[in-house]
Design goal:
By secondary structure, the chain is mostly helical. The chain has one domain: di-copper center containing domain from catechol oxidase (Orthogonal Bundle). 31% of the residues lie in helices and 2% in strands. Helix 3 crosses helix 7. The radius of gyration is 18 Å and the shape is globular. The two termini are 15 Å apart.
């Protein structure tokens, strides 16, 4: 049966509690940290050698679609009524949004160490100790707005800049691609610091703390963010029914991207599914 992912602002109190409870149970079992390890292991950049599957590559969107689906299946094995809600960051753009409530994601980090002190994922509650991808602190941290280099959440106009591109991706298939929906949504542009970031990337920077870098999954808001990113890809697919994942075939030997990006029918590690396999989610879930 097809199930529905909802906007987090439309969740009932009971739905919020069920989602939080399932996430906490995954954490207690150790399975949540396995998801963090997967993201850390596959978080690579343009300058790294070898295959890039999760970021700075065409497979950014299908890789995270499958990753999110695996996480959701783990939650639903605990409670079949749970789905991963999405956070529309073009609407809920402030620290006062319901997303950051005491009963859901908790709020910003405190001054000094940026430790989150509110909500079910606060370290002081005893249920959320961070162990993967960090060297010192074991608590969830956030730094809303990144005051050291201030940034705002993306606007609808900035999102439209990505959504209006009818081409999925373009050479050189990395963070320097000047055109293509994928790179514009992922959010890489020329520049430095916050000025370089758009859409998906800017949201990570705005939340700050543990949402920066490969271990960003340590903040449960990661899943709500990527659920919205997946929704946006779904909407783009509906707008552009003839536009398919690119590249269709692997970059040739001699190309700077040879062996570094996933083509349409090549498996994405560690899942074993291809971008073509996950292009249509309509038989599994839909968005409200």
């Amino acid at each position: 049966m097809v199930y529905t992912r909802k906007d987090q602002r439309d969740l009932t109190r009971a739905e919020r509690r069920k989602f939080v409870d399932a996430v906490l149970e995954l954490k207690r079992s150790g399975r949540y940290d396995d998801f963090v390890r997967t993201h850390v292991r596959h978080y690579s950049s343009d300058g790294d050698d070898g295959l890039r599957a999760a970021h700075m590559a065409p497979s950014f969107l299908p890789w995270h679609r499958q990753y999110l689906l695996d996480f959701e299946r783990a939650l639903r094995a605990l409670d079949p009524t749970v789905t991963v809600p999405y956070w529309d960051w073009t609407r809920d753009r402030t620290a006062a949004a319901s997303l950051w409530g005491e009963d859901f994601m908790g709020g910003n980090g405190r001054r000094g160490d940026r430790q989150v002190m509110t909500g079910p994922f606060a370290h002081v509650r005893g249920d959320w100790t961070v162990t993967v991808g960090v060297t010192e602190n074991r608590f969830l941290s956030r730094d809303f707005g990144h005051p050291a280099d201030p940034v705002e959440l993306p606007t609808r106009k900035e999102l439209a800049w990505a959504m209006d591109d009818p081409v999925y991706d373009s050479e050189p298939w990395n963070s320097t691609s000047a055109s293509g929906f994928r790179n514009k949504l992922e959010g890489w542009t020329p520049g430095k610091g916050s000025a370089r970031l758009r859409n998906h990337n800017r949201v990570h920077r705005w939340v700050g703390g543990l949402m920066l870098g490969g271990a960003s999954v340590n903040d449960p808001v990661f899943w709500l963010h990527h659920s919205f990113v997946d929704l946006l890809w779904s909407r783009w697919q509906t707008r552009n029914p003839g536009a398919r994942y690119q590249p269709a075939t692997p970059p040739p030997r001699g190309s700077s991207q040879y062996g570094r990006v996933v083509a349409r029918h090549e498996p994405m590690p560690p899942f074993g599914v291809t971008p073509a396999d996950v292009a249509d989610h309509s038989r599994v879930y839909r968005y409200a």
